[in-house]
UniProtKB/TrEMBL annotation:
NCBIfam families: GGDEF (TIGR00254), PRK09581.1 (NF007135). One of its GO terms (biological process) is negative regulation of bacterial-type flagellum-dependent cell motility. Its EC number is 2.7.7.65. GO terms for cellular component: plasma membrane. It comes from Mesorhizobium jarvisii. PROSITE patterns: GGDEF, RESPONSE_REGULATORY. Keywords: Phosphoprotein. It catalyses: 2 GTP = 3',3'-c-di-GMP + 2 diphosphate. The modification 4-aspartylphosphate is found at residue 53. The keyword Phosphoprotein applies. CDD domains: GGDEF (cd01949), REC_D1_PleD-like (cd17538). This is diguanylate cyclase.
């Protein structure tokens, strides 16, 4: 695992010590001795994790962290605050400033490296989502990144897996009105509960009588539905090795008992904020993909999707020696509808036609808007004779029932011409299949419209 780590400390010896440790793990190391230089480096360079000292002159680490997290261009960079301060209030202050973690000097080597590696993995995921989102279309990503998810009114839905009643009661009291908390005592039942419910964080206690909590962490990380759910380990004093192993397995954070309420809520808020941020990016990427292959007016797939998917359906049909048919439909005299009722009226007709088309084909059929007033339906496992009957059913459905236009409900007669073709045994291609359907459509149009023509060869 390689990454670029920025070390920020005004004492050169401290910078050098961390630099040597990181270089030994083959990280690329950048350094800064003050807050403004650190901010400039983050703005101008590719930084994966910031190791930030708190006690610096002029601008302390808390202020540097706040500025990085408030800037959409740098808010996604994980920040680990490192300080000699060992008060809970200081850790909470750092987490509230937006820090992703907080380590106390002298820093344990294993804790440092597992923290850094965990945050590098998280940063890599975020970078991939940001890249997909920004390269597909402009989704308002800067506005998204600048949101403060921690301040949202909705309480996070959290699962606590802990078999000790006294511990559960304390945590329930700490998170009262701060989280929608579910509690499971049995770790096996907890796993299924986490898999079946959409949680924004799972907290797992380590003090089970006869169960390894890290096995549960590993199972949650291996399941698709829970792979990205933040996990916080609630550990006992002296369990450093277990914590380190947990971080290597993919837990996001941990708390040592006795648990402080402020630190618990601050760390929970940090994990939920990051999860909501990444969930928003994933949703934006999914929406972008859907918009790229969907016709905005009719809701059918568009030509881009047809061009990429028809070849797959064709190859599958040929390989399995199964029939496949295509129909191309064209609304008759559609230009006159646009001329008489405007493009709004034309759009209403197209939407209603798409609705009727969808109603008359199967779920496995691929219905697409080919362009303008032309539509294509690809019908797997359908021979020419059946496809011709389907096309005739669609033609009749359009012709028999007038289309309503405008707020006054005025109706007009609409007809459609259809060309049908099927895959030929022997040598055939997608281009030839579509060409035959197009020629059949031309014959239907030139032969008087409002008819179906099937082209066998």
């Amino acid at each position: 695992m390689t990454a670029r780590i920025l070390v920020v400390d005004d004492i050169p010896a401290n910078v050098r010590l961390l630099e040597v440790r990181l270089l030994a793990e083959y990280f690329e190391v950048l350094t800064a001795t003050n807050g403004p230089d650190a901010i400039e480096t983050c703005e101008n360079g590719k930084v994966d994790v910031v190791l930030l000292d708190v006690m610096m002159p002029d601008m302390d680490g808390f202020e540097v962290c706040r500025r990085l997290k408030s800037d959409p261009a740098t808010s996604h960079i994980p920040v680990v605050m490192i300080t000699a301060l060992d008060q809970v209030s200081d850790r909470v202050r750092g987490l509230e400033a937006g820090a992703d973690d907080f380590l106390t000097k002298p820093v344990n080597d294993l804790q440092l490296m597992t923290r850094v590696k965990s945050l590098v993995r998280l940063k890599s995921l975020t970078d991939e989502l940001r890249l997909r989102a920004s390269t597909t279309r402009n989704i308002g990503i800067e506005e998204l990144l600048s949101r403060n998810f921690a301040s949202e009114d909705t309480a996070p839905k959290v699962l606590l897996i802990d078999e000790r009643k006294s511990s559960v009661e304390r945590i329930q009291k700490m998170l009262l009105d701060r989280a929608d908390l579910d509690v499971i005592g049995d770790p096996h039942a907890g796993f299924f509960q986490a898999a079946e419910t959409s949680y924004e964080c799972v907290m797992i206690a380590t003090a089970f009588a006869d169960f390894d909590p890290l096995r549960l962490c590993s199972q949650l990380r291996s399941l698709d539905r829970t792979r990205f759910v933040p996990i916080i380990l609630l550990a006992e004093e002296g369990e450093e090795e277990r914590i380190i192993r947990g971080l290597e397995l993919g837990i996001n954070d941990y708390l040592m008992r006795p648990i402080d309420q402020q630190e618990l809520t601050a760390r929970l808020r940090t994990q939920v904020r990051r999860k909501r941020y990444n969930d928003q990016l994933r949703a934006s990427v999914t929406q972008t993909i859907e918009m790229a292959v969907t016709d905005g007016l009719t809701g059918l797939h568009n030509r881009r999707y047809l061009d990429s998917h028809l070849q797959t359906l064709f190859d599958r049909a040929v390989a399995r020696r199964r029939p496949l048919s295509v129909m191309i439909t064209d609304l008759d005299r559609f230009k006159s509808i646009n001329d008489a009722y405007g493009h709004d009226g034309g759009d209403e007709v197209l939407r209603e036609f798409a609705r009727r088309l969808r109603k008359n084909v199967r779920g496995i059929d691929l219905a697409c808007r080919f362009g303008g007033e032309e539509f294509v339906v690809v019908m797997p496992d359908t021979d020419g004779a059946v496809a011709e009957k389907v096309a005739e059913r669609i033609r009749a459905e359009i012709a028999q029932k007038p289309f309503a236009i405008g707020a006054d409900g005025k109706t007009i007669e609409v007809t459609v011409s259809v060309g049908v073709s099927s895959v030929l045994k022997g040598v055939d291609t997608v281009a030839a299949l579509m060409k035959r359907a197009d020629l059949a459509l031309y014959e239907a149009k030139s032969g008087g419209r409002n008819r179906v023509v099937a082209k066998a060869a």
